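On clarity, I found the account of how folds are encoded harder to follow than it need be. Since the whole study asks how a given chain folds, the encoding of that fold should be made plain. For illustration, here is how one protein appears when written out as sequence plus structure tokens:

:::
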Amino acid sequence: MKIKLYLIFFLFVQTYISNAQKAYVINDFMKGYTLYFVKQSKDSKTDEYYKLIENQTNKTVLEYGKNELSKLAISKIAKNTVFKSILEPNIRILGDVNFDGRADIIIFNNEINDDEGCYTPQATAYIFINKSNSFVLSKSISDLYYNSSCVRGGSFEIDSKNKRLITSSSGGAALHVCSYYSVSGIEAKEECTFEEDGYSPSPFSTITGKKRKDNNWISFSSLSVYEPNLDEVVAFDTKNGKGRIILFKSKSVLYYAFQQNDAYKFVSFAYPSDPEKATKAIFKFRKQDANYELEFNSGTIKYVLYETSSDFGIKIYVNGKLSDWQGTAKKGSLSKLVNSKFLNMVKEY
């Protein structure tokens, strides 16, 4: 009888241990690597351990988690599985955060941290940079990721095209904060930060902030506009690479915007800049057969948007000197103005 009870107890303990501790071998997490993953639940607490091994050299390139779990003979007790079968994994490939052509890894602490006063409690993030022969923890990029998630409406974006990291947050429906960072090795460096205030009745948002120039911070102000929200008449890029022309309408007012072709895509010139100036910001529209022109003046500078059957662009007259900025990738047409009426447009035909 004692032997039978002992056997039942032994089987119970073995079942408990089996349920409380799970180990996996994952071959499809990252090409060229094998991931060993152990998860242990005990007294309502869960501990994890990760070990990433490079297949070619059989070298451990990343270790993270509960040290005690690393002493297990993982390769003997682990089950082979595919990564997608792991429910809500705390490890994943983040992307190339330092733009060196190698994918980097993020691991989340499996416990939510509610001590930092975040808008929504977050798990601490640890970002490991792929240094070809090992993965190195980047404290600055990890902090950047965590802090961006901590604030209201926070986001973290890898801008591969411009080789920068972008964080943003929301202070309400129309107030946004954004920062841009360059990355060197495992260190992130802030290059620009600004607030975008969209509370104005204008279709443009006001930008105020600072950006780094020659290791010094300089203040700046500008305008911005979110093109997908606009009721466009015509929009195109300039062939000379200067920027983007956007002609759009909002509440019976016609607006022109020139969006700079730089890292920030701010609007450097708007006509008019707000609806209160509309009555003094007059456009003159002309039509001859299939040729269209829209003229306006800002101070002594004259602008003429033009469109023919074979060409389009904008002509700029400064002190009698003409610059013809031809367009490319056009959306819309000036022909839309033929049957349109605006508070600040007159027709001359």
